[in-house]
Amino acid sequence: MPLSDRPGQASSLLNYLPVIFQENSAPGQPNFLGRFLLAFERILLGLGEVSDKVPTPGLEESIAQLDRYFDPEHTPSEFLPWLAGWVALTLRDDWEEKEKRRFIGRIVPLYQQRGTKGGLEKLLLAYTGLPKESVRVYELTQPLQVGITSTVGVDTAIGSGLPHYFVVKMSLPISTEIDRKRREQIAHSIIDREKPAHTYYNLIVEFPTIQVGITSTVGKDTLIGTRPLGTSGE
Predict the structure, then answer these.
(1) Euclidean distance between CA atoms 109 and 6, whole angstroms
(2) Are 135 and 168 in contact (CB under 8 A)?
(3) Using CA atoms, how far apart are residues 207 and 86, in angstroms rounded to an integer?
(4) Rounded distance between C-alpha atoms, residue 202 and residue 200, angstroms
């Protein structure tokens, strides 16, 4: 009901004024000032309701909850791009909401490690939300030491290492083909943006082997066959 349709209601703000301002009212009815202040009370304190079911929050309540807009875990989804702008981050449209929240929450400390091997690993982990062993970056410029600096079949190169070249290996949960391609594209975009301009790389995405009931569910996420070894980027 509009406030103008409540002739018998006076604003509680009237109680903060001297008694003289509460005079000149008809018996049982608020004076003009009491009714006039209802509009301000509604704006400041959230008096009344838009409907019988939807309350109207006031400025006081909104300001009291202001901190949640700066928390990527609790801010409303429509504020995520605004919050990302505060930390110099551009969000991709194809990211899921949980991916955006996690990435915004972790990006600021990682700016100190931009362009480094460790920084790239942590950025990819921030996107995936997986354990740290799920992402590895290998620089193939070190001497061959099997089991120390090289793993046969993964990052082993015979001879001198290639200059300015590295390999990114990611282990992701089994998913649909569409989701796999989406994750690979996002991983490429993160690497392309964060790597030094003079370097190039190869991205290898692996999925766990089939263990029915553990890493695979028959009829849902079980795939028979091989995956591509990887894709390169410059």
Answers:
(1) 54
(2) yes
(3) 35
(4) 7
Q: Angle at Cα 181 formed by Cα 180 and Cα 185, nearest 5°? A: 120
Q: What is the pLDDT of residues 159-203, one digit of tens each?
A: 555 778 899 999 888 778 888 888 888 899 999 988 888 898 999
- Which three-class secondary structure state does DSSP give residue 206? strand
Handedness of CA 210, 213, 217, 219 (dihedral sign): positive
Residue type, 21: F
The number of helix segments (H) and strand segments (E) in the chain equals: 6, 4
Best CA proximity match to 169, nearest among 215, 197, 134, 128: 134
Determine the Cα–Cα distance for residues 70 and 66; give it in Å rounded to an integer. 8
Helix (H) or strand (E) holding 182: helix 177-194
Say what the pTM is.
Answer: 0.55
